[in-house]
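Notebook B, p. 112. Complex prediction, attempt 2.
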Amino acid sequence: MNTEQYISMPKEALLKEQTALQQKYNAYQAQKLNLNMARGKPGPEQLELSMPMLNILHGKSELYAANGDDCRNYGLLEGLPEMRQFFGDLLGVDACDVIVGGNSSLNMMFDTVDAGMHYGFSNCKPWAAQGKLKFLCPCPGYDRHFGLTEYFGIEMIIIPMTEQGPDMDMVEQLVSSDTSVKAIWCVPKYSNPQGITYSDEVVRRFATLKPAAKDFKILWDNAYCVHDISDTPDNLLNLMKECKKQGSDDLPIIFTSTSKITFPGAGVAAMAGSKNTLATIRKKLALQTIGYDKINQLRHLLFLKDLNGVTKIMEQHKALIRPKFDIVLNTLKQELTSAGFAHWTNPQGGYFVSVNVMEGCAKRVVTLCKEAGVTLTDAGATYPYGKDPNDCNIRIAPTFPSIEELKQAMDIFCIAAKLAALEHLLTK
Amino acid sequence: MNTEQYISMPKEALLKEQTALQQKYNAYQAQKLNLNMARGKPGPEQLELSMPMLNILHGKSELYAANGDDCRNYGLLEGLPEMRQFFGDLLGVDACDVIVGGNSSLNMMFDTVDAGMHYGFSNCKPWAAQGKLKFLCPCPGYDRHFGLTEYFGIEMIIIPMTEQGPDMDMVEQLVSSDTSVKAIWCVPKYSNPQGITYSDEVVRRFATLKPAAKDFKILWDNAYCVHDISDTPDNLLNLMKECKKQGSDDLPIIFTSTSKITFPGAGVAAMAGSKNTLATIRKKLALQTIGYDKINQLRHLLFLKDLNGVTKIMEQHKALIRPKFDIVLNTLKQELTSAGFAHWTNPQGGYFVSVNVMEGCAKRVVTLCKEAGVTLTDAGATYPYGKDPNDCNIRIAPTFPSIEELKQAMDIFCIAAKLAALEHLLTK
């Protein structure tokens, strides 16, 4: 095996390396595998953890909310009082600042941006009536944030990620100088895809932003708030508390869900914000639905109970997920370190590992993987409009495949990454 | 008791009647009652019918969709194949023309209008890019249809209802001549609030509409498709079949849900439309959610099974609801017939009785009821912008109160209706 950096190898050595790797690649291709590392999907063994929740409602007495309402009937548009408290505890905010939604936090984000477009925030004109709009997008980031922003015709501005979070110098400069900058998308803990947790300083700088636009919002998608995979988990400073200290509590709109605590697709989503913010959200909510599924909220309350209950099940998830992350990280280290062209993150939680392959090669790596039976997230997906300016970032989602599948898939990924790099160097 | 028509009574007799009724009213007011006939909410005894559904998922083997997908994980954006079939059977359309949603058909309607605004239908420009837009609103109608239409800034045009459905002469005239008329809201079976089922002729005239706007849509909210209360239920002609005969299957978009079959708020909603229509819907759907709650779809499939299962539970609902409708209709007949100023419908199904009190009196009746402890739907709610041009229509929802409560509430309603009429006549 090669132990030299590709960049410093002579052409002949590169060709030799290519031949050896091509043989391995062909052998995998002959196996006609069908492996998938594309989406942050829990593995089947993780789904087993929540099976007791399915039959947890035993009697009629359990079907009433804290306020006496029958959860089987219409009502309680903002969620059960005790479920608002549950999410308040999870997010470190007051229960009265929480609205509980349906099964999808993405849908709540979509509706939130729509409410901003239609009604506007903070007593400003509707976003839609203000001409050109811009959202800041720390990158690499979450493709679905970008997809919904594009739906609303909002221009996306790439903000580079550092190891501490978004480049705050750039964020502050843009936010404080441009009234058309209306929001920033953040996955502040175990970011998608890098697994970076914003540092205390970054969170404080968010709380002390002085936006040119009075209706600027921090869209704080705390999807992975309790999703540790390490015994030395990251800690995220509480943005809402910091904002309340600064009197800037109209800034953040916080989202989360139990999708990766209980069942993806059959979990419960929630959002939190200031009174002003939620007043705007409520106006739309009252027109678009009579209420969300309160029986599923009850199931979650009986099953998870409180933060202790969440901690317990997240420990079980960790035990199942961590070996998968180990395989990804160990394979990357073993196979790609010496060649020297690739860089990746070492997350303490979340659902992804972010790999930068050789610049200009990400699309080719994804294609090579696909042709050997391994589906990855599309190259470019971690950037607005699906366009990675350097064509180098690839998001790896290790949770869904089995351990055996993952070993094969990662082996193929590393071969593909090297083959693409060699092609690139040899055709220069 | 008075047995004359108010309109032909001399002033003295009216005053005497007023005094007698005011005494009764005062006696009720002294009881400080708290009764509610405002919303179409099933009664608690109806909710008991679906209790077995809560614990119906017993084993892992039941958690897979017909295509093999694990329903506990992400996926199947358009719903389980077998749930699409279930709703296809319920609505009389092909399973492939169905998209299964979350718990709220109202939310699907909201998203549908939004998709029309944003993407447009039938290869036309987005509705939002076409300037002034109008929706036709058969009235009295459903307040939430009007509320969401107002959200989108679409002008609402009142279409009078006849006993056969909307005034089709007026519908045809407007639809065929005005390209800004983009849709009509219909509750074609047991309409909200009148309980009118559109006649075969009306349905056929809908299928043969020749809209001036190529992107005109019939928004067919079939909320009460199986909700009979009579042993001689109405039959609604299948609009989609009629449209397919005419080659006009891009016209209808059909909505329904199990909210009043199983649990309101924890049911399953669905929509149906042509391939062209659903293509537009799908574009938005893919951006706003990763998928709806498939486990709840499974619960419904195991509990209701098929159309036979639906028929069985609807018979049980009927047995519980019908005595309540009988109280409403008998009280109206007994208390209001002779006074001659009120008119009401005699529905064979649905959730409401529509009462026209004396013109100019509906608001006063609602206020008088409120002050005697009976909450009704706001007067005007059955018209766009909450404005009943004749101030005479009131929607009565008999299902939620108990039999005893309903007797009192209807007694108070009739007293209030008469008092308001007397006030009106005496101050002329």
